[in-house]
Amino acid sequence: MEITIVTDLQNEPCFTSEFGLSLLLRTASGEYLFDTGAGTALEPNLRQLHRSASSIRQVILSHGHYDHTGGMASLQPEKIWCCSGIMEGHYSLHDDRTVHDISMPEKSCAVLKKNASEWIGIFQPIAPDMFLTGPIPRYSGEDCGGRFFHDETCTVPDDIPEEQSLLTTDGILITGCCHAGIINTIGHCRKHHPEIAVRAVVGGLHLRHADAERLERTATCFRDNRIEELYLMHCTGETAVKYLQQALPECRIFTPRIGRPFSPLNTI
């Protein structure tokens, strides 16, 4: 598998930066766009990669937050994989008591409704070498990365139940924000496919505001599962990356750049 970051919050020459995530996956089964960013960077960055938005035919959406779904408005894919509830309201409550609407934008919802969508409800294959986890049960007690609610008055808690990740038969696990927690996510994969050892993790881990205990539990999970490579981006946080680099000297840890292809576990 070859992966290229299309959007992320990076100052990379010739590329547009935004708080959002989108990954272009080139696999033996075809090409997929995993998440679409917030909407301002996808088209210009695809052009910089000598691609057009119209060339994107298959999209996987990890969850319903705007920074992963905003770019859908510029696409007309043939197939979209996502979980039920992705278009519901999503709001975040900040420390200053302000409430931010982080739902999927209306224009992105319109594309999702118009195009052929594959609604994922369980752990299932989407190609001979790839699986989508479907909704991930929360057993470990990891927080979901913030104070999230389904309503603007912040009375209905939201643990982002529609979130899913991607697992390959090579043992590459791709996450959007990993609101479910990486311990839960790896455990969910092991439960459904114990014969697949997760060896590399790619994506955001939402550890920007994680306390010492959560960082330690995360490192222990990676160590216990013998994770060989981490490709960390988006909402992982610089402090968390540095912590994991120090705690896991046996693990190869990277912070890939926009537009520069990489191949986890040298699987290309």
Which sequence of SSEs, written as H and E, runs from N to C?
EEEHEHEEEHEEEEEEHEHEHE
Strand order of the largest sheet: 9-10-12-13-14-15-16
Instruction: Examine the coordinates and then state which fold CATH places here, giving the name of the CATH topology.
Output: Metallo-beta-lactamase, Chain A
**General form:** globular
Average pLDDT: 96
Give the CA-CA distance, first to last residue: 5 Å
> What's the architecture, going by CATH?
4-Layer Sandwich
CATH class: Alpha Beta
Which spans have pLDDT < 50 for at least 5 consecutive residues?
A: none
Q: What's the CATH H-level homologous superfamily?
A: Ribonuclease Z/Hydroxyacylglutathione hydrolase-like
Features:
Metallo-beta-lactamase, Chain A; single chain; 22% strand; 268 residues; 7-stranded mixed β-sheet; globular; alpha/beta
Q: Secondary-structure map with pairings?
A:
Layout: E1 2-7, E2 22-27, E3 30-34, H1 42-48, E4 58-60, H2 66-69, E5 79-82, E6 91-93, E7 99-101, H3 106-114, E8 117-119, E9 124-127, E10 130-132, E11 148-149, E12 166-168, E13 172-175, H4 182-192, E14 200-203, H5 212-224, E15 229-232, H6 238-247, E16 252-254
Parallel strand pairs: 3-4, 4-5, 5-8, 13-14, 14-15, 15-16
Antiparallel strand pairs: 1-2, 2-3, 6-7, 6-11, 9-10, 10-12, 12-13
What does this structure look like?
This protein is of the alpha/beta class and 268 residues long. The chain has one domain: Ribonuclease Z/Hydroxyacylglutathione hydrolase-like (Metallo-beta-lactamase, Chain A, 4-Layer Sandwich). It has six helices and 16 strands. The chain has a seven-stranded mixed beta sheet, covered by helices on one side. The protein is globular. The N and C termini lie close together (5 Å).
